[in-house]
Amino acid sequence: xxxxxxxxxxxxxxxxxxxxxxxxxxxxxxxxxxxxxxxxxxxxxxxxxxxxxxxxxxxxxxxxxxxxxxxxxxxxxxxxxxxxxxxxxxxxxxxxxxxxxxxxxxxxxxxxxxxxxxxxxxxxxxxxxxxxxxxxxxxxxxxxxxxxxxxxxxxxxxxxxxxxxxxxxxxxxxxxxxxxxxxxxxxxxxxxxxxxxxxxxxxxxxxxxxxxxxxxxxxxxxxxxxxxxxxxxxxxxxxxxxxxxxxxxxxxxxxxxxxxxxxxxxxxxxxxxxxxxxxxxxxxxxxxxxxxxxxxxxxxxxxxxxxxxxxxxxxxxxxxxxxxxxxxxxxxxxxxxxxxxxxxxx
Length: 346
Ligand code: SAH
What we know:
The protein is α/β, with parallel strands linked by helices. It has two domains: about 1-65, Orthogonal Bundle (DNA polymerase, domain 1), CATH 1.10.150.530; about 70-335, Aldolase class I (TIM Barrel). It is about 35% helix and about 20% strand. It is built from ten helices and 14 strands. The strands form three sheets. It has a ten-stranded mixed sheet, covered by helices on one side. Strand 4 (about 80-85) and strand 5 (about 90-100) form a beta hairpin. Helix 4 (about 135-150) packs across helix 5. The longest helix is centred in the middle third of the chain and has 19 residues, at about 135-150. The protein is elongated, with a radius of gyration of 22 Å. The two termini are about 30 Å apart. About 40% of the residues are buried. S-adenosyl-L-homocysteine binds next to strand 10.
């Protein structure tokens, strides 16, 4: 029965080598299969043409290859593409291709639903169903790379873990996926072109620092005032700003990598001078930059994008404090592919 067979891509190269040894074959076959699975993206055992028919049948009898299926593709006027991705168990996640200038960025999901409860995010309304496996994350990247070549005549250049889910709540699998994405046997991408975005899980930020990771870190801050942050991101009651600060200092000490704070300004929530002042203080802890992102409405009355006056206040005060700031306009809004809109219409 298909379901009882193990997904072969859950095996490491070493495990594949041992498997072949255990059936009296050469361990080297494990390397060949690994290459088929990861660098050549084989979807079936029959594609592995340098293996004998007998070996392929043997693999077929023991394993399955659970590939994702891009089930729906929506293309925005601005070139953004949203993929609806069906997993082997029928669940669906979304990933987005974002073209900017000479770059193509893949925004990928790490969980089906999300572990956290940000009030302004559409994904938070879904129940967290499960974590994605490393191969399911990897496949999203491969699918977007293909689309980038097809529609924009260039390979994928950057990856952000800003799709559905909280990557640090699925840490092991996210790390395993990045390992494959960056390894020469996978996609060979530089970790410098990868950003993992977290709502701020202090314990895991420290763990990442200990693991000496090479990718970049973004933190969805949205408010540097504890009381306000708790209102809009209720998990912040347990993951406090004090702990977050401490973990970020630890991160910087170990990695010397500056941090990006993602920040949305909403009217009546964080649009006052005291909000900017608190952000400036928070920015003094470790080298960082602030990325102000536009709010993408998710049909909820509680949140409204602040007006330009409030944005100007942020820009003026942060610039005066010499904190690098970028203001990012949303992409793919017309197809619900912008930040926080994933899963909005399902
Ligand atoms: N859980 C991770 C990654 C997913 S969210 C994190 O929180 O960082 C990716 C980014 O989109 C985060 O910065 C998040 O705060 C932001 N976001 C969520 N909902 C949004 C919305 N409706 N409009 C704009 N940005 C939103």
